[in-house]
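Researcher: Re-running this chain for the archive, since the previous output was lost when a drive failed. Same request as before.
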Amino acid sequence: MSTITNDTEFRHALEKLGIQQQRAVAALFVEHLSALYDDERIKRVISLAKNTETPIDELQMAYKAAKAASIDSYTRCGADGD
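Model: Regenerated structure tokens:
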């Protein structure tokens, strides 16, 4: 396995992966940022996204849950500034 040392190499490596593998890599990345959030919906979405066998309908529901968590987080953030 070669070492990736820059953004271009990383993008090329990702392009070689299938869509399920790309999704799993993205889920691992988000999982490493877990200290920045405390929302069970996101944790569930990550576990579904990491599994390359997750059916598309579950992924669609997970997307909606992640979007709702994002909107809720953004809304709370704005409310804190009032």
